[in-house]
Amino acid sequence: MTTFHKDTWELYKSTEMAKQLTAGETLAKLGDDHPEIVALCADLGKPTRLWDFGAKYPDRFFNFGIAEKNMVTAAAGLASTGKIPFVATYASFLGILAAENIRTAVAYPNLNVRLIGTHTGIAMGFYGSSHHATEDIAITRSMANMTVISPADGVAIAEMVEESVKAYEGPIYFRVSRGREEQVYTKDAAKVQNRIGKANILRKGSDLTIIACGIEVHEALQAAEQLQDKGISVRVIDMHTIKPLDREAVLNSARETGAILTVEEHNVMGGLGSAVAEVLMESGVNCKFKRHGFYDEYSLIGKPFYLYQHYKLDGKGIAMVAEDLLNN
Amino acid sequence: MVNLTASQVKVNLIKEKAKLSRLETIRLISLAKSGHYGSSFSCSEIFATLYYHVLRYDPNNPKWKNRDRFVMGKGHSAVGVYPLLADVGFFPKEELDTYTEVGSAFGDHPDMNKIKGIDFSSGSIGHGLSVGVGMALAARLDNLDYRTYILMGDGELQEGQVWEAAMSAPNFKLGNLVAIVDNNKVTVDGVTAENMSIEPIRDKWESFGWNVIDVDGHDIEALIRTFENLPSPDTDVPTVIIADTVAGKGVSFMENGYEWHVANLGEDDKIRAINEIKEMN
C-alpha cells in the first residue's frame, strides 16, 4: 500500500503522507521564538524543503550555491557567534562530500550546527550511486561530539528538530529520506513521541526484535505483521538515535527475545547494525543476530520501489531475512 | 608633531611586539622540537599590527559579542600569535610553558575551546575564509559592527574551498569581511609558483568581486595605513589585503627558504636566529 504510485511517484492520497522533509516547516514555526535559528542550503532549498523557513525568514536563509564545503564551514562560523544553523542538502553531498568540514569545523569545536542529510540510502533510485548515501551513518557516527539521528517520518523529525533547538547542545546529523514515505507516527499535539536518545518500542514481541531506523521502521512494522501470520512474535524498535545509542533497549531485547535483526538503508558496515553489535559484544549478552542493509555494495540502478524490493528492504523482504535468521 | 610622535611610538611598539612574537616562536618551538618558523615569521608584523592597533577586543571578556574576529586559515602560524595573546592579557604568560605537552591548551594549531582569544579552531587549510563568511553574516543579522579578519597563506589559495568562500562573500555583500593573504611564496614542498602557481592573485580576487589592496607585509606603517583606511564594515564589498612577505623574515638563513616551513633549530643556529631577530630594525 503505497501512497505514491510505484512507478511515477504520482501522489495518491496526499493527506496520509508523513512528509519526512518537515524540518523547514518546523523551523518556520520555531523562528519567532528562536531568532538564533538560521538556515543554509546549497541550491537544494526546494527539494529539502528548507524553503518553508526561507519563505518566512528570507533574511535568515542563505543559499550558498553548489558549494557544500563552504556552506558547512560558514555554518560553523555562524554557530560560533551563538546562532543555531540548520544546514540541509542531500546526504550524499553533506555527510559524505562535506565530511571533513563537518569533522573539523563542526564536530571538533562542538558547535550547535544541525546538519540535515536528506534523500538518504537509495531514495534517489535510478539517479545512481553519486546521489545515494549508504555510508553517512558510519562517517558521522565516528566523529566525536556528534549526535546521529535517523527519524522514522516527518512527525519524528519535527519533534526532534524542536528538541534540538530548545534543549540540546552540540552538533547533530539528521538523516532523513525523500519525503515520499509512509507515516509511522500520528501527530499528537498533546504528547512528544520521539525524544533524542530514547528508542521507541513500537510493537511488542517475544521471538525476535527488529531494530530499525529511518524509513525502514515502517517496513519493519510491515514485516512484523507478516511474521505474526506465521506465528512469529516480533518486537519492533525505532532506534532513531544511532548515537548515543539506547543500550538498554538493545540489551533488553537480546535478553527478552533472544534474537535481533537490524535493518537500515545503509551499508551494514559501520551503521546502525554495527552500533548494535558493539553494544551486544561488549555486554556479554548473547543472542541470534544479523545486520541487514546493503552488504558492502553499491546499489543497482532502478526505481526506488523496486530497488527496495530487490534489496529485501521492504516489509516482505525483511520478513524473509528474519525467518532465515530464526531458522539458522 | 604630537601626532607624528604618537604614531612613531605606536610603530616602535608594534616592531617590538613583532620581535616578541618571533623570539617566543623560537622558544616555544624549542620546547616542541618541531614547528612552523618560516610561516610564522612571515606574519609577525601582521600579527603585531592587528593585536596592538587594529583589532577590537577585551582580554577580560574574550567572548564579547561585538569584538572583532580574527581567524587563521593558516592555523600553523598560531605559535606566533599565542605569545601576543598572553602579552595583551588573555591568559598568563606562564601557561605558554606547557606548549605541546600532553593535555596543554597550546598545540601547533589553535583550539577555540581551550585558548582565550582564539576565535576559531583551525588547522585544515582552506576553512578559514568560510568560517569568516559565517561570522560576517552573523554580524549582519545581529546588527553588530565588528569586522572579521581571516589570515590565509598563499599556498592556502590552492584549496578549492577558498574560492567557494571568495565567491560567496561579495554575493552576501560582506564588506565587514577582510581577508589577508600572507604571500610568503613558499609551501611545504617548495616554492609556490613552482609547485602549483596561484598567480595572478590580484586578478583572481578582483574577478571574484573583492576590493584588493597590496601592501608590504613587513612595513608596519604601511600596514597601519592599510587597516585604518579599510572601507566601513557596513559597505557591500569585502576586502582582501595581499601582503607581500618573506618566509622566515628576520633570520637570514631562513629567509625565503621553504626548508624552514617546519623545522627545529639546533642550539648554535638558535642563538644566531635570536641575535638576528633582536637586531632587526
Account of the protein in words:
The complex is a heterodimer of chains A (328) and B (281). Chain A has helices spanning 23-30, 51-56, 68-80, 91-96, 99-107, 136-141, 154-166, 216-229, 247-257, 272-283, 304-310, 315-327, and strands at residues 37-41, 61-63, 84-90, 114-118, 147-149, 172-175, 200-203, 208-212, 234-238, 241-243, 259-267, 288-294. With 328 residues, chain A is an alpha/beta fold. In chain A, helix 8 (216-229) links the parallel strand 8 and strand 9 (234-238). With 281 residues, chain B is an alpha/beta fold. In chain B, the strands form two sheets. Chain B has a five-stranded parallel sheet with strand order 1-2-3-7-6, sandwiched between helices. In chain B, a hairpin with a 2-residue loop joins strand 4 and strand 5 (190-191). The model of chain B has no long low-confidence stretch (mean pLDDT 96). Chain A binds chain B through residues 38, 59-60, 62, 64-65, 67, 69-70, 72-83, 85, 100-101, 104-105, 108-110, and chain B through 65, 71, 111-113, 119-121, 123-124, 127, 130-139, 141-142, 160-161, 164-165, 167-168, 171-172. Chain A: Its cofactor is thiamine diphosphate. Chain A: InterPro entries: PDH/Transketolase, THDP-binding, Transketo_C/PFOR_II, Transketolase-like_Pyr-bd, Transketolase_C. Chain A: Belongs to the transketolase family. Chain A: It holds the Pfam family Transket_pyr.
Whole-angstrom Rg of chain B: 18 Å
CATH architecture of the largest domain in chain A, by name, is 3-Layer(aba) Sandwich
Largest sheet of chain A: 7 strands, mixed
Please give the order of strands in the largest beta sheet of chain B: 1-2-3-7-6
Shape of chain B: globular
**CATH class division of chain B:** Alpha Beta
Give the ordered list of helices and strands of chain A.
HEHEHEHHEHEHEEEHEEHEHEHH
| Terminus-to-terminus distance of chain B | 23 Å
CATH class of the largest domain in chain A: Alpha Beta
Largest interface: A-B, 29 and 31 residues
Structural class of chain B: alpha/beta
Element order, helices and strands of chain B?
Answer: HHHEHHEHEEEHHEHEH
